[in-house]
Amino acid sequence: MRRTRIFLVGISGAGKSTVGRLVAERLGWDFADSDDLVEERTGRKIAEIFATDGEAKFREVEQSVLADLSRRERLVVSTGGGALTTEGGRSAIQSGFSVWLEISPGAAAQRLSADPAATRPLLAGDTEGRLAGLLAIREQQYRLSDAYVLVDGIAPEQVAGRIVKCWEDAADVAATVRTPGAEYPVVVAAGALGRLGVICRERGLKGRAFVITDANVAPLLAAPVMRALSAADYEADSFVIPAGEEQKTLATVGTVYDWLLQHKVERSDFVVCLGGGVVTDLAGFAAATVLRGIPFVHVPTTLLGMVDAAIGGKTGVDHPLGKNMVGVFAQPKAVVIDPAVLETLPDRQRRAGWAEVIKHGFILDQQLVCDLEAAAGDPRSMLSADLIGRSVAIKAAIVSEDEREQGRRTLLNYGHTVGHAIEAVTGYSTYLHGEGVAIGMRAAGLIAVELGVLDRAGFERQQALIRACGLPEHAPDVAVRPAIDAMSRDKKVRGGAIQWVLLDRIGHAVVRDAVPEEVARRAVEAVLS
């Protein structure tokens, strides 16, 4: 999946505008400077905006400009140094291929001194010192970019060439997850399954490959995966577990341990988790804990696994008292997604996967919602590498920012509070995960409307897309009291209060932990009737 927007980020003086024009010229694309467009839209210089209305007003206009640019194709964008400091700026930049032009504050200050006509309100006075201070604040966000290019002492033409090469090399990489302890690509491309062995070699994996899959996937995909590994000179073996969420238990993990240990697994070996969310969660957990942890690669075969379960390092199993109650955070070495394998997926499984894709749009990307609304009548379009890759990029960006769900990652739980309760009450055998999430999103929407957080039109738009994707809005066979009890045991409960993720508009979510019990109960009763 080759993204057709490139966003250049970094501190002032990195040369984003100069280099951006050169990159656009090489690719035959358009070029835009977000600062220039802010001035054009307001009819005022940036310094004047800061002086009269403050930085907050500037950021508001900047976010609007970047949102518009994120909907254009074949475009190179030079962004302001602080574009990544706002949620709207991050969301827009994450829609494309982002490149950090990394420069030292001293070199940047020297460049800026050669352009006395340019006025930068945040750099008045000690330019180098202020640049160093801003870099210290913003560097973590810059490092989440898809690529870095060092620019100190390098000609703009050379920098432009390196950016184009980074973009070309990342053609099939929908996103890169960067956490404090790991960095890995998420490859999304038709035919990626056949390149699995090559990708494993590129990621530095050298030992034996232990493929863990389930009884549904094995007859369809185990042989191609084994061939791809063998072609890259890996010694490989496979183990098949029973299929189904009800198998996602410590008992099943025990059988995987037995198999691995009987085959004398070593820490230099690695596991290939081939299957849907059950397999990626369970096999990833087994790999992360056997011998105190060996590497693993996720090869998700369901849409749900591709856009959610395989990305972010959550591994584990269910417990009778709740879903995913036992597990560890452990990041894979790579995630390899081949949309072609979805052709073998039953229609119900495909629809369940769409729930997570539209969830990503609802919480963070209004344009993705618009595109999903346009594609909802065409099941093949809903399975395109483009839509899958964009959904993957949203999940990867959030995980990179918040690996252990201490902050922004909580937004990914939209619809999950009620959804997990429905799954738990029915023993994980009646409703698929995505179906539970779809029903849970309706419950969250009802709460948001009653509290005045979301307008009725936004709620109806949400439900129209859920229906267009063939997802359920009710679970009439689930009793209210057990569901509420299950919600109270959810991992997202803090200090006895449920953390509700609610929409305040399409494409933007907030977290509330003070939802009145009677409001939550009415919403649950509505979706379980």
What's the CATH superfamily of the largest domain, by name?
P-loop containing nucleotide triphosphate hydrolases
Q: Segments where pLDDT lies below 50 for 5+ residues? A: none
Biggest β-sheet: strands ordered side by side in the sheet: 6-7-14-11-10-8-9
CATH class of the largest domain: Alpha Beta
Query: What is the tally of beta strands?
Result: 18
The outline comes out as: globular
CATH topology call of the largest domain: Rossmann fold
Rounded mean pLDDT score: 92
- Which value, in Å, is the CA radius of gyration? 24 Å
Helix content range of the residues, please? 40-55%
Major sheet attributes: 7 strands, mixed
CATH architecture of the largest domain: 3-Layer(aba) Sandwich
What is the number of helical segments per DSSP (H or I, 4+ residues)? 22
Question: How many domain regions?
Answer: 3
Briefly note the structural class of the backbone.
Answer: alpha/beta
